[in-house]
Every structure is written in structure tokens, then in C-alpha cells.
């Protein structure tokens, strides 16, 4: 694993975009979701703290499109906001499944840890849905 530390969101987004672009050159059929970000921890119990951060999404989208936008199709660009919601929902389902299976896959630090993770992810999905139109408008402007 490569760890890249950047001091600003724009620099981090550009670095992430370069890594993603390299991956797509090496593996053109890779399936990607665009992260949307939340200031809360992945296992936050106070769900009021869990929300999608539009400035973070914008920085990620700008960086990603700056590096990968040249070879993405119009449809792929259109579905970037949806992909962030889908990957967040997917990990929420994985946390829930692991909780129901007895916490055998993800490392847990307390009882109900994976259930708290699931709830936080589902709350983030809800926040993404509430901002979906704004995300779509931003991407229309960036395309």
C-alpha cells in the first residue's frame, strides 16, 4: 500500500486522481466509486455528525476529472455521484452482514462495532441522497 500525505484538499484530490488514472491505464475494466467524505468517524454513534461534505466531494471530483476526465465517457462522468452513494451503501451492507455473521471479517473493538459502522454508512447514504442534485449540478459544470 502506498500512503500519500498532502497538506491541502486540492493537492490530495489531484494525487488521488493520478493514482486512479494509473490504475485505469493498467486495468481498464476496474470498477470505481467516488468517495464523498464525512467528518465523522466510520463508527460514529452520534449520527447527527455523519454527513456528506460538499467541499470535499467537489475537491475529489475536480481532481479526479482533471486526471481521468479525458478518457471517461459522458455516462461514466454522469454517474460519479451515484457511484459514491453506491459504494457507501455497499460497505454499509458489508458491515451489517459481518455483524449478523458474528463479526468474523472486519476487526471490531467492542460489541456492536460493525452495527455502528453500518448505521454511520447508511446515514451517509441518506446525506448523499439529500445532496444528489447539488452533486449532479456540480458535475455538469465540471464536464
Task: Write structural notes for this entry.
The chain is mostly helical and 143 residues long. It has one domain. Helix 1 crosses helix 2 and helix 2 packs parallel to helix 6. The protein is globular, with a radius of gyration of 16 Å. The model has no long low-confidence stretch (mean pLDDT 83).
List the SSEs and their pairings.
Elements: H1 9-26, H2 54-68, H3 74-78, H4 80-100, H5 113-130, H6 132-142
Helix pairs in contact: 1-2, 2-6, 4-5
Main features:
143 residues; mainly alpha; 6 helices; single chain
Short description:
It is built from six helices and no strands. The protein has 143 residues and is mainly α.
Low-confidence parts:
none
What structural class should be given to the helix and strand makeup? mainly alpha
Average of pLDDT: 83
First and last CA, distance:
31 Å
Radius of gyration, rounded? 16 Å
List the helices and strands in order: HHHHHH
| Number of spatially distinct domains | 1
Report the total helices.
6
- The percentage of residues in β strands lies in under 5%
How is the quaternary structure best described? single chain
Largest sheet: none
Helical content stands at 55-70%
Q: What is the number of beta strands?
A: 0
**Shape verdict:** globular
